[in-house]
UniProtKB/TrEMBL annotation:
The keyword S-adenosyl-L-methionine applies. CDD domains: RsmI_like. InterPro entries: 4pyrrol_Mease (IPR000878), 4pyrrol_Methylase_sf (IPR035996), 4pyrrole_Mease_sub1 (IPR014777), 4pyrrole_Mease_sub2 (IPR014776), rRNA_ssu_MeTfrase_I (IPR008189). This is Ribosomal RNA small subunit methyltransferase I. GO terms for biological process: methylation; rRNA processing. The keyword S-adenosyl-L-methionine applies. GO terms for molecular function: methyltransferase activity. It comes from Simplicispira hankyongi. Keywords: Cytoplasm, Methyltransferase, rRNA processing, S-adenosyl-L-methionine, Transferase. It comes from the Bacteria. It holds the Pfam family TP_methylase.
Length: 262
């Protein structure tokens, strides 16, 4: 990519968090989970890189109901990350090539702030977007993370598990035998080192994952499940695995974070 247009000042890359109610039956008022400064910065932004354009427009519409948008919704410049970045990541894992996102930041080199947005929570944390952040650093574009909800940290803080040493391990295998093996491996690591293991699942698989955890974990291993975080019907429970064997799982449409440890 060529350098800046003569006479322009580079824009910034704004990491704009989104509410955690994506896909949920009810929505939380934005002002209850996101500070005014974050919403105002988003309202001033007209160039976006996002996970999904439809959900990005829906979020901007909600912001516009609180703070006037700098340009009408139909005039916002919204670019989606490639589908392959969602499926295979962008760091060269799983046989995929590292994704070069520098072209997506052309507006920043022309002087416009660019907002990075995922469907829920903080972009580039358990969500796509790190390739855009990496490209910003390579181009000398300032990266500005804005304040907002991050489900992993909210769940960890509320779990009662070790918040000084923890790891996020993404999704567990769908195959039952592979999943059980992975659970046992994570449990052994957690019990040996004290490191809390955090993971997530597609909401409609919540019940199957919880059942596998309750059956596979040692009876006294502690398991925390936080679902619907920041919503009115949020649930955060932390207890021994044996106590989960007869507990209700998170709803089929409710995002959840699972954490195990001691």
């Amino acid at each position: 990519m060529s350098g800046d247009t003569p006479g322009t000042t580079r824009g910034r890359l704004l990491l704009v968090p989104a509410p955690l109610d994506f896909g949920c039956e009810t929505q939380t008022p934005l002002q209850d989970t996101l500070p005014a400064g974050t919403l105002q910065a988003a309202a001033r932004t007209t160039h976006w890189v996002c996970e999904n354009a439809k959900s990005a427009r829906a979020y901007l519409k909600r912001i516009g109901e609180l703070h006037p948008l700098a340009s009408p919704l139909q005039e916002q410049h919204i670019t989606e990350l490639p589908r392959a970045v969602h499926k295979k990541g962008d760091h060269g894992a799983q046989g995929s090539a590292r994704f070069d996102a520098r072209n997506l930041l052309a507006p920043a080199l022309a002087g416009h702030d660019v907002g990075l947005l995922s469907e829920a929570g903080m972009p580039a944390v358990a969500d796509p977007g790190s390739s855009v952040v990496r490209a910003a650093h390579e181009l000398g574009v300032a990266v500005v993370p804005l304040v907002g909800p991050v489900s992993l940290l909210l769940a960890l803080a509320a779990s009662g598990l070790n918040g000084q040493n923890f790891a996020f391990v993404g999704y567990l295998p769908q195959d039952a035998a592979e999943r059980a093996q992975r659970i046992a491996s994570l449990e052994a690591l957690a019990l040996r080192t004290g490191q809390t293991q955090l993971f997530i699942e597609t909401p409609y698989r919540n019940a199957a994952l919880l059942q596998a955890l309750a059956q596979t974990l040692q009876p006294t291993t502690r398991l925390a499940v936080a679902s619907g975080l920041t919503l009115a019907d949020a649930s955060i429970r932390s207890m021994e695995a044996r106590q989960w064997r007869h507990a209700e799982p998170p709803g089929r449409h409710t995002p959840a974070v699972f954490a195990l440890g001691r």
